[in-house]
């Protein structure tokens, strides 16, 4: 079974993907289960200042219509992608208590108010330092915060780096990656395999398949696959290849979520 558990609809202000097109494309590409995971990131350093859903009643009401319309053809989870930042965690807790989300991706988009996208984060850092600081930051969130299901695009720091992309980048600061993976496993949380990385300079999933292997070898069993589509044309992008890779290393199951409860599905 194929899943795409990271999709942004037009409820995210950086997405052009309409729900109709998302659902149609998913079905055409043989995807059985999707999660709509729109952004909640506050006080962003680039315009608009908030990449955040505002009208949650509308979000839930609209997606519920699609759930009804596609019942029996496509399983649609109502998710959210929260941006990890210390001073917004309480707000997220309130939101997640108030609304019945199925699934929560926690992603680190900003490091000490610096968005890698803007470049300043990398200034004065070697590539390895930039990676290490990023991984360590997620580890400290994982150790202190519980209200999420999977960590999104675990090595997003690679996406906007000004350094040349090299084959072994995913092996840099591997001790920090291991600490992060162990923290995630100890908390009984999961990681996503974010296929959008295949479109970026690293031309690899986020995290790299080797890191997925490592997560599995360390005892990690909670995996989702997501395209991070902001355009319906990319729904299902490289999902089949990722499932094939997982099967090739003996992983036969991924997770989906309903009411924040994990459900194991056979690949
Ligand atoms: Zn993200
Ligand atoms: Zn995303």
Structural descriptors:
267 residues; TIM Barrel; binds zinc ion
How would you summarize the topology of this molecule?
Layout: E1 2-7, H1 19-28, E2 31-41, E3 51-52, H2 56-69, E4 75-83, H3 89-98, E5 103-107, H4 127-144, E6 150-151, H5 174-186, E7 190-194, H6 209-217, E8 223-226, H7 239-248, E9 253-258, E10 261-266
Parallel strand pairs: 1-2, 2-4, 4-5, 5-6, 6-7, 7-8
Antiparallel strand pairs: 2-3, 9-10
Helix pairs in contact: 4-5
This protein binds zinc ion (2 copies).
Can you characterise this structure?
The chain has 267 residues and is α/β, with parallel strands linked by helices. It has one domain (2-266): Alpha-Beta Barrel (TIM Barrel), CATH 3.20.20.140. Helix content is 31%, strand content 21%. It contains seven helices and ten strands. Strands 1, 2, 3, 4, 5, 6, 7 and 8 form an eight-stranded mixed β-sheet that branches. Strands 9-10 form a two-stranded antiparallel sheet. Helix 5 links the parallel strand 6 (150-151) and strand 7. Helix 4 runs parallel beside helix 5. The chain starts with a strand and ends with a strand. 42% of the residues are buried. The model has no long low-confidence stretch (mean pLDDT 94). One zinc ion binds at residues 81, 107, 109, 152-153.
The string of secondary-structure elements, in order, is EHEEHEHEHEHEHEHEE
Oligomer category: single chain
Give the overall shape, derived from the CA principal axes: globular
Task: Profile the largest sheet.
Answer: 8 strands, mixed
Number of strands: 10
- CA-CA gap between termini: 5 Å
CATH topology: TIM Barrel
What class do helices, strands and sheet pairing give?
A: alpha/beta
At CATH level 2, the architecture is Alpha-Beta Barrel
Q: Which parts are unreliable, with pLDDT below 50 for 5 consecutive residues or more? A: none
Q: Which CATH top level class fits? A: Alpha Beta
Which ligands appear in the coordinates? Answer: zinc ion
Query: CATH homologous superfamily name?
Result: Metal-dependent hydrolases
Q: How many helices in DSSP terms?
A: 7
Residue-averaged pLDDT: 94
